[in-house]
From TrEMBL:
Keywords, comma-separated and alphabetical: ATP-binding, Carbohydrate metabolism, Kinase, Nucleotide-binding, Transferase
Top-level taxon: Bacteria
Organism in which the protein naturally occurs: Rhodospira trueperi
Recorded coiled-coil stretches: none
HAMAP family in alphabetical order: AnhMurNAc_kinase (MF_01270)
Taxonomic placement: Bacteria, Pseudomonadati, Pseudomonadota, Alphaproteobacteria, Rhodospirillales
Binding sites annotated in the UniProt record for ATP: 41-48
Protein name stated in the entry: Anhydro-N-acetylmuramic acid kinase
Keyword RNA-binding: no
UniProt GO molecular function: ATP binding; kinase activity; phosphotransferase activity, alcohol group as acceptor
Length: 389
C-alpha cells in the first residue's frame, strides 16, 4: 500500500444527499434476447465482446466473453483521431468503417464454434470526443455497417439522447450494475477502473436508487507514463508503483482541480488529463508510477464525499483491479472493504461489454437507460438507435 499523504484530507463522514428516483413498475414482457455487447474503452487496449441472455431488466444467463486486442498500428491510428468531432473526411470515414469491421471480427470470434445467432447487438463504438456541456459526444464505428456485416440488428448511439436532453451522456453502465446487484447487501459501490474511473452507488430503495459519475483518472495517465518511459502498455501488477515513493507535493497539485469538488453527476473525457504529464515530469519512472497510482486512489477517496452514505463495500471492476498496489491502496485509504467484482460472482473483464448488451435490450423494451442520479438527465431517459441489417 502507498502510505496515506499528510496533506490530503480523509473522506469526510458520509452525509445524506439527494437520491435518484425510484423505479417505475416493470413493463410486462415474457421473452428474452440473446444479446452481444461490444465496448472499445478509453484505455484503447482492444474490443471487449460478451454475450448475455436478458429481458432488459434481469440477466437470465451470462455467456462467454473475450477481448480482441488492437495491434499497435491501429491503436496509434485511433489515438491520432482522439479529439475529433467529425468523421466527415477520408481518415474519419476509414476509421468509422474499420472499427465496425473489427467489431464484426470480435463478434465472429466470440461465436466461433457455437451454434448461437444473437438476436441483438449493443454497440458502444470508440469515444473520440466527449463534451456534454457543449452538447457533443462522438463515438466512431459505423453501426449500419456492423448490422450488415453480421445480419443482426444493432443498437448504437446510446449517449446521444441523454446529452441532447442536457445530461452528461455518461456513465451508462450503472443500470446494469443495479440489475446485477439485486439481492446483494446495499448500499453497494461498484468502482470501474479503466482508462477513466467511474463509480456507481446503489442504494436500498430498488433498482433505480442510483448515484453515478466519473471519479477522475483511471489507468490512462499511468499507462501513458509507463509507455513513454518503457514502451510497455501498463504498470503490470503494480511492480513500478511498488518500487517507487509517493511525491506528496505533486499529488496535491494533481488533486488541485475543480472537477474533484464539483458535485455529481459529472463525466470526463480522456483529454481532461492532458495536463498531468507536465505535473509529474522529472520524477523517476518508479516515483511517477507511485504518484499516478496514488492519483487514481485520491480521486476515488474524494468521490466518496459525493456519495449519500458509506457503502457496505466497494467492488472493483475494469483492468485496474488486476493491480495489487492500486487495490491495497484503495483499501487502506478508503478504510472500507474493497474487493474485485469476482467476489460477488461477476466478471470484471466482461462487465462493460455485457452492459451494452443489456442496454440494447432496454432500448428494444423502451425502458430508460439513464437517470437523474446517473447522468443528470432531467428524467429517466430511453436512448439508442436501432440499425437493422
Ligand atoms: N495485470 C495488470 N496490472 C496492472 N494494470 C493492469 C493489469 N491488467 C490490466 N491493467 C490495466 O487495465 C487497463 C485496461 O482496463 P479496461 O479494459 O477496464 O479499460 P477500458 O475498458 O478500456 O477503459 P474505460 O472503462 O475507461 O472505457 C490497462 O490499460 C491497464 O492499465
Ligand atoms: C464518454 C465515454 O465514453 N465515457 C466512458 C469513459 O470510460 C469510463 C468512463 O469514462 C465512463 O463514463 C464511460 O464508459 C462507461 C462504459 C460508461 O458509460 O458507463
Amino acid at each position: 500500500m502507498i502510505p496515506f499523504p499528510k496533506g490530503l484530507s480523509r473522506t469526510p463522514a458520509a452525509r445524506p444527499g439527494p437520491l435518484g428516483p425510484v423505479a417505475d413498475a416493470p413493463h410486462g414482457f415474457g421473452g428474452t434476447w440473446l444479446a452481444v455487447g461490444l465496448m472499445s474503452g478509453t484505455s484503447m487496449d482492444g474490443i471487449d465482446a460478451a454475450i448475455i441472455e436478458t429481458d432488459g431488466e434481469t440477466v437470465v444467463g451470462v455467456g462467454p466473453s473475450l477481448t480482441l486486442p488492437y495491434d499497435d498500428a491501429f491503436r496509434d491510428r485511433l489515438r491520432a483521431m482522439l479529439g475529433r468531432t467529425s468523421l466527415d473526411d477520408e481518415d474519419g470515414r476509414r476509421l468509422h468503417r474499420d472499427l465496425a469491421l473489427r467489431h464484426a471480427e470480435a463478434v465472429r470470434a466470440l461465436l466461433k464454434g457455437s451454434e448461437v445467432t444473437p438476436d441483438l447487438i449493443g454497440f458502444h463504438g470508440h469515444t473520440l470526443w466527449h463534451d456534454p456541456k457543449a452538447g457533443v459526444t462522438v463515438q466512431a464505428g459505423d453501426p449500419a455497417l456492423l448490422a450488415r456485416e453480421l445480419g443482426v440488428p444493432v443498437v448504437a448511439d446510446l449517449r446521444q439522447a441523454d446529452v441532447a436532453a442536457g445530461g452528461e451522456g455518461a456513465p451508462l453502465v450503472p443500470i446494469y450494475h443495479a440489475a446485477l446487484a439485486e439481492g446483494l447487501d446495499r448500499p453497494l459501490v461498484v468502482l470501474n477502473i479503466g482508462g477513466v474511473a467511474n463509480v456507481t452507488w446503489i442504494g436500498k430503495r430498488g433498482p433505480k436508487d442510483l448515484i453515478a459519475f466519473d471519479t477522475g483518472p483511471g489507468n490512462g495517465p499511468l499507462d501513458d507514463w509507463v509507455a513513454r518511459h518503457t514502451g510497455e502498455p501498463c504498470d503490470r501488477d503494480g511492480r513500478l508503483a511498488a518500487a517507487g515513493s509517493l511525491d506528496e507535493v505533486r499529488l496535491l497539485r494533481l488533486m488541485d482541480h475543480a472537477y474533484f469538488a464539483r458535485p455529481a453527476p459529472k463525466s470526463l473525457d480522456r483529454k481532461d488529463f492532458d495536463h498531468v504529464p507536465g505535473i509529474v515530469e522529472g520524477l523517476s519512472l518508479e516515483d511517477g508510477a507511485t504518484t499516478l497510482t496514488a492519483f487514481i486512489v485520491a480521486a476515488v477517496v474524494q468521490s466518496a464525499t459525493h456519495l449519500p452514505r458509506s457503502p457496505v463495500r466497494w467492488v472493483v471492476t475494469g483492468g485496474g483491479r488486476h493491480n495489487p498496489v492500486l487495490m491495497d491502496t484503495l483499501t487502506g485509504w478508503l478504510g472500507a472493504p474493497v474487493q474485485p467484482v469476482e467476489a460477488v460472482g461477476w466478471n470484471g473483464d466482461a462487465l462493460e461489454a455485457q452492459a451494452f448488451a443489456f442496454l440494447a435490450a432496454r432500448h428494444r423494451r423502451n425502458l430508460p437507460i439513464t437517470f437523474p442520479g446517473t447522468t443528470g438527465a432531467p428524467e429517466p431517459m430511453t436512448g439508442g438507435r436501432l440499425y437493422r441489417p
